[in-house]
Design goal:
The structure holds 3 protein chains of 3 kinds. By secondary structure, chain A is mainly alpha-helical. Chain A has 13 helices and 2 strands; from the N terminus they run E-H-H-H-H-H-H-H-H-H-H-H-H-H-E. By secondary structure, chain C is mostly helical. Classes of the chains: A mainly alpha, B alpha/beta, C mainly alpha. Chains in contact: A-B, A-C, B-C.
């Protein structure tokens, strides 16, 4: 029978090969699923995974969608390595958009180069503060950070909805629940004319490089790895779990908040209840697909951005509901976790039957 | 004469390792049969095979002349084989009765079971309360639960895997009485151990394993302990020369320390007082689970206490974490090598960085200096003869002895003022153990204060200048090792145990 | 002295019921109807939480409850619409939940994948798949669910609506509670399950087959979550909308912690959350200030502490004076200067309540570590 045997060390190529294998498996399973639902599987796969690469506008949109995914996932990767599970990045994304956006609205019409950095700072601070709630409750009361951070997603969504239909509502907006359009000085500059590709994309790229350095060359990355793989050895080595919990949650919250602000001050241009589209959850998959490696995450964010754009197109052309992309994303994570076993264990045939 | 259990040509390999090779063994009713061998000689695999937990690659077993091929422990129990594990197979959050019911094929109802537990317990001198939670029991009591669980099945063959490694001398004596009574009733007992005096006192016959093979067999009563040891290890033993001990200045002091355990089943440390001087090896004896782990954590800094409770060179350090203590020269090596002293999935260089960072200056403003780290790791590997393909090998790929040499060497090379080691040679082969003990002695000779926590009394008698016992979270007075005999130490351990049971009643 | 000793739990329960009656009378609502709606709101949570509790008792942490619930919701809904049979719908919901759970089971138990990540994948996948399947079903009314209807008895005032004329699934949820209790604490199977959750290595050494036992528990938990989902889509709402579980699965996970992995307390937890959900809806509808929720929380806390103090545990009774003062103060504020508030803030109540409950239940580390199954979430790799 087939048995799993732990590997003592994993060949490097396997680390790179398993995500590709997982994507291939997902396409197969996804095609089968669409066939079962009476849709043309080849058509569905083509629309979701291929067409966005052909169309030039879609290609720039790929970057627009990949940037927030990458930023959030980069932050999450450290926590996931350390065994600190921030599942509420979506909420931190929303709160970052609210706090940063509120700064932009407060200085409405005041030009100045200082405004965008200030908004970015406020967004990051808002996201980090929101993430500090589960961090503090975990540190002080040992409350599970997964559940707390997740509950705060719902609270953040309601908060956004309350604010845009309350204090932040557009005074000339006929009572629609949305804020004003941000002033030009509070909108992210576009670096690729004719598209929506904004400077946030470049910042995400820079953050990827910085995260790679932190992870592999700095004590912080070392401690995150240590805490996740051997918590008792980490305590022995002098890693303070409480500090790591706060830093990892704060870092991922800050990056998610920054991503939220970039989304509001970039492609969307105002605060609306429909601002969150699940980037915070998708980023979890991005982090795993990128193997919790910063450079892998940059690549993985492009792949997941593809499913977003493809999913949107599929809504029109194939009448597939928006939530259907969750199916793909969920399957991708399943496939990834399943093939991951190959990196940790060797498959072997063993003689003899056994219970 | 017909054997109760007959093993013929049993072989088992794991990838790259031959753990049991062509084992032949006959066990007769009414005998206590020792399986003697070093750690890693293949004793545990052999008995796990008999108990159905490991499938052999080749060979066959007969019970009472009938072919026996267990597919699991249930088959073994059905064939009349019971086993008491070295690391107990007990559930802390369940009661004694529930634990026992789990080991029975068809347990009777609650009331009936409780009655039978009491009957068996009384008949064999193993007092037990069926309703208590196992997590609240002492280690000796837990072993009783395991034994009673086996006895309720009326076994014909009883396997005891290193049963005395966790017991006080008094508890060992009680256990032997029980085992002799069982033997006289015709039960065959397979007794796994590497403790020679015990085997000489208890066992009728012994089969000696080395590197997975049967290398010898004898009647242990007819051999000296030294002869048995040489059969087991295959070389002649060397004893280190006694060393003169001239204590220097006081380096480490623990003052009236009381630490409640944060684990529901842990041990609370009570009023610990100790003093360690330059050049001294202080041995702390006691069976596991009596606060050793807790004390080691307080000294390493993993558990923080009031600043004034722990002093190093007259400086208050109780509130400091491991990193700050390392900078001041207080280093330590925990008991569990994989997962505590070293991160299993990290390579040796990364594991060298784990404790070497501060004292060896392996980072610059938080950025890791890879070249310095690699050099430090290589130095440990070279000076302590760590057998490894290289420093890029993950820690879990090393054998127990090699990893332990790495762990101890990593601390010694940092030239500590004080070194605290917990169970330095537990589960380590004889060569590595000798190397480690010699290194600890040399370190003390160079003026470091060394504190060794160990369950192995022989080890402490060999290397410790001064000696104390930790029992129930209390530390006894410190004595000069020279002035004590093993019997006196046994009394120190047992005396404390009696006090505790009075306090409970 | 033994005549009038009230346990803290009973005191809190009684106060909560009393407060409910007072509230409904003050708001001009029928207390009986209010209670019934709380029971209906609690049922999905109770089913899902009890199932998850069994899974966790076996030492497995399945975070995918939300995904399994929503799959159960749409599977039950679709089959009910297509077949018209409520029983068939429930079977379908349970099977769908169990099937999804087994995906988790195979990944985590056989392929040894990380339980947290796999549970998340399960949630995402479940939400997406349910939306895909449910596309043609939005806006349809499901067939009515069979209720208990005993001639005469079910029509009795108060007792009738309160106890004797519910949907059959509600009675089933209580039967399930009893069955789980008996299984866990009075049967050998339950003992083995708890043993596996305490220490899989010890259980393996005794010859128990850890992986099949855990797979069975996971499938059972999935079936319960599926039923919980069907209770939402067929009885509580009853309608199909995308993402209709709205975090109920996650709240069920918190309820397991709240209940300290004990069946009766888990059921009580479900009723507490059902109560909070219904109360905030009614506060919204009645235009009352959310301060009342604060008053209620303070009151229950004060009653609990006082009962403990009277029983001789916890703080001294005089130390509780400020707590009662705060309760009275909050009540006075609610009466004399009610704060009007947007509906969205009230809708946060169940989520904030979950966080508060988690904090309170986890704060006592020693007790939390005693109750939780010791092997929860650990990977078991069967030695060769």
């Amino acid at each position: 029978m087939l048995a799993l045997e732990p590997r003592l060390s994993t060949p490097g190529w396997l680390h790179a090969a398993t995500p590709v294998l997982a994507i291939a498996l997902t396409m197969l399973a996804g095609g089968a699923l669409f066939a079962a639902l009476g849709k043309n599987p080849v058509e569905a796969i083509r629309v979701i995974f291929w067409d966005p690469l052909i169309d030039p506008f879609s290609r720039s949109e790929l970057l627009v969608k990949a940037a927030p995914l990458a930023m959030i996932a980069l932050g999450l990767a450290f926590g996931f390595r350390a065994g600190i599970w921030n599942i509420g990045a979506e909420g931190q994304f929303i709160v970052g958009a609210i706090t940063g956006g509120a700064v932009g609205l407060a200085f409405y019409g005041t030009p100045g180069l200082w405004l965008l950095p200030l908004m970015a700072l406020a967004g990051a601070a808002g996201g980090a503060a929101w993430a500090m709630i589960p961090a503090i409750l975990k540190i002080r009361f040992n409350a599970n950070e997964i559940l707390v951070s997740l509950m705060l997603v719902y609270v953040a969504e309601l908060l956004l909805s309350a604010l845009v239909s309350g204090p932040l509502r557009d005074p000339d907006g006929f009572n629609f629940p949305e804020s004003r359009q941000f002033h030009d000085s509070a909108t992210l500059p576009i670096f690729w004319p004719g598209t929506r590709a904004h400077v946030g994309i470049l910042i995400a790229l820079g953050l990827g490089v910085a995260a790679a350095v932190m992870l592999h060359r700095h004590v912080f990355g070392y401690h995150a790895n240590l805490l996740g793989s051997a918590p008792r050895a980490a305590a022995f080595g002098g890693v303070r779990v409480h500090v790591m919990t706060a830093v990892c949650l704060g870092l991922s919250g800050g990056l998610a908040g920054l991503a939220g602000l970039f989304e509001a001050a970039g492609p969307v241009g105002q605060l609306v209840p429909s601002l969150p589209v699940g980037y915070g959850f998708t980023a979890i998959i991005v982090a795993f697909l990128g193997r919790l490696e910063p450079l892998g995450i940059l690549l993985a964010s492009l792949v997941m951005a593809l499913t977003y754009i493809g999913g949107e197109t599929a809504q029109f052309t194939l009448q597939i509901p928006a939530a259907a992309i969750w199916v793909f994303q969920g399957m991708l994570l399943f496939a990834l976790l399943a093939v991951d076993v190959l990196t940790r264990y060797r498959l072997r045939w063993r003689r003899g039957v056994r219970a | 004469m017909s054997a109760l259990l007959s093993i013929q040509g049993l072989t088992k390999t794991y990838p790259g390792v031959l753990v049991n090779q062509d084992i032949h063994l006959e066990v007769e009713p009414g005998e206590i049969h020792a399986i003697l061998g070093e750690n890693g000689a293949g004793k545990s695999t052999l008995v796990k095979t008999i108990y159905g937990l490991v499938m052999p690659d080749a060979g066959r077993m007969l019970v009472n002349g009938v072919e026996y091929q267990p597919r699991g422990p249930k088959d073994a129990r059905a064939a009349g084989i019971g086993m008491v594990f070295q690391h107990f197979s007990l559930f802390e959050a369940l009661s004694v009765a529930e634990n026992i019911a789990l080991g029975m094929a068809k347990p009777p109802g609650r009331v009936e079971l409780a009655r039978r537990i009491r009957d068996v317990a009384n008949a064999y001198g193993l007092p037990l309360d069926p309703d208590r939670l196992v997590g609240d029991l002492s280690v000796g009591e837990r072993q009783r639960v395991e034994i009673v669980r086996c006895l309720l099945q009326n076994p014909r063959i009883l396997i005891m895997d290193e049963p005395t490694s966790v017991l006080t001398p008094q508890e060992v004596a009680a256990l032997f009485t029980t085992l002799r009574k069982l033997r006289d009733e015709g039960v065959a007992i397979l007794y796994i151990s590497h403790k020679l005096e015990e085997i000489r006192a208890l066992c009728n016959r012994a089969t000696i394993l080395r590197s997975g093979r049967v290398v010898d067999a004898c009647r242990p009563a007819e051999k000296t302990a030294r002869q048995l040891a040489e059969m087991m290890i295959g070389i002649e033993l060397l004893r280190p020369l006694p060393r003169l001990f001239t204590p220097g200045d006081t380096l480490l002091r623990v003052l009236h320390l009381t630490v409640p355990s944060d684990d529901a089943f842990g041990t609370t440390l009570r009023k610990i007082e100790l003093e360690l001087r330059a050049g001294e090896v202080l041995g702390i004896a006691g069976v596991a689970g009596n606060g050793q782990e807790e004390l080691a954590r307080v000294l390493s800094g993993e558990t923080r206490v009031n600043a004034a409770k722990v002093m190093l060179d007259g400086q208050r350090i109780g509130h400091m974490g491991p990193s700050r203590r390392r900078r001041l020269g207080l280093l330590s090596a925990p008991e569990e090598r994989l997962g505590h002293a070293a991160a299993p999935d990290m390579n040796l260089a990364e594991n060298a960085f784990l404790t070497g960072r501060k004292r060896q200056r392996l980072d610059y403003r938080g950025f890791i200096k890879s070249a310095s780290t690699a050099n430090f790791a290589r130095a440990v590997v070279r000076k302590f003869d760590v057998r490894t393909p290289g420093i890029a090998t993950p820690a879990r790929a090393l054998s127990g002895g090699n990893l332990q040499k790495f762990v101890i060497g990593r601390e010694i090379l940092q030239r500590p003022r004080v070194l605290v080691v917990n169970q330095p040679t537990w589960g380590v082969d004889a060569h590595a153990a000798a190397t480690i003990r010699a290194a600890l002695r040399d370190l003390a000779a160079a003026g470091t204060g060394v504190l060794v926590i160990s369950q192995d009394l022989d080890e402490l008698m060999e290397i410790a200048d001064t000696f104390a016992v930790l029992e129930g979270g209390r530390l006894s007075k410190v004595h000069r090792t020279r002035s004590l005999t093993i019997d006196e130490i046994g009394l120190m351990m047992g005396g404390a145990a009696r006090e505790r049971s009075f306090a409970r009643a | 002295m033994s005549g009038l000793r009230l346990s803290p739990g009973a005191a809190v329960t009684l106060t909560a019921i009393l407060a409910l009656v007072v509230f409904s009378l003050a708001a001009g609502l029928d207390p009986v109807l209010l209670t019934v709606s709380i029971m209906v709101a609690a049922m999905p949570l109770m089913l899902a939480a009890l199932g998850e509790m069994v899974v966790e008792k076996s030492g497995v942490l399945n975070l995918g409850v939300e995904g399994m619930m929503i799959i159960g919701a749409i599977a039950g809904f679709a089959i009910a619409v297509e077949s018209g049979s409520a029983l068939l719908a429930l079977v379908a919901a349970a099977l769908a939940g169990a099937a999804l759970a087994l995906v988790f089971g195979v990944l985590t138990q056989v392929l040894l994948a990380n339980q947290v990540a796999t549970g998340l994948a399960l949630t995402l996948f479940g939400l997406g798949l349910a939306a895909l399947i449910g596309q043609p079903y939005s806006g349809i009314k499901p067939p009515p669910f069979p209720r208990l209807d005993i001639p005469l008895l079910s029509d009795l005032p108060v007792v009738g609506p309160l106890l004797l004329s519910h949907d059959l699934l509600l009675y089933f949820s209580f039967a399930l509670l009893a069955a789980i209790w008996v299984f866990l604490y009075r049967s050998r199977g339950g003992l083995v399950l708890r043993a596996v959750g305490e220490s899989h290595d010890a259980a393996h050494a005794l010859g128990y087959r850890v992986i099949p036992i855990r797979l069975a528990a996971i499938a059972f938990g999935g079936a319960c979550a599926g039923l919980g989902g069907a209770a939402l889509s067929l009885i509580r709402v009853p309608q199909w909308t995308e993402s209709m579980t709205a975090g109920a699965g996650w709240i069920a996970l918190a309820i397991v912690v709240f209940g300290g992995w004990r069946p009766v307390r888990v059921a009580l937890g479900a009723y507490l959350f059902g109560g909070v959900t219904i109360l905030q809806l009614n506060l919204q509808a009645a235009g009352l200030t959310p301060l009342w929720l604060l008053v209620l929380a303070l009151l229950l806390f004060a009653v609990h502490s006082t009962a403990r103090a009277l029983a001789g545990a916890g703080a001294h009774i005089r130390a509780l004076f400020p707590l009662w003062l705060a309760t009275a103060g909050a009540a006075a504020a609610a009466v004399y200067s009610p704060i009007a508030i947007q509906a969205q803030y009230l809708s946060m109540a169940p989520y904030i309540c979950t966080i508060v409950v988690l904090v309170v239940m986890s704060a006592d580390r020693l007790r939390a570590s005693l109750n939780a199954p010791a092997a929860l979430g650990r990977v078991f790799h069967r030695p060769a």
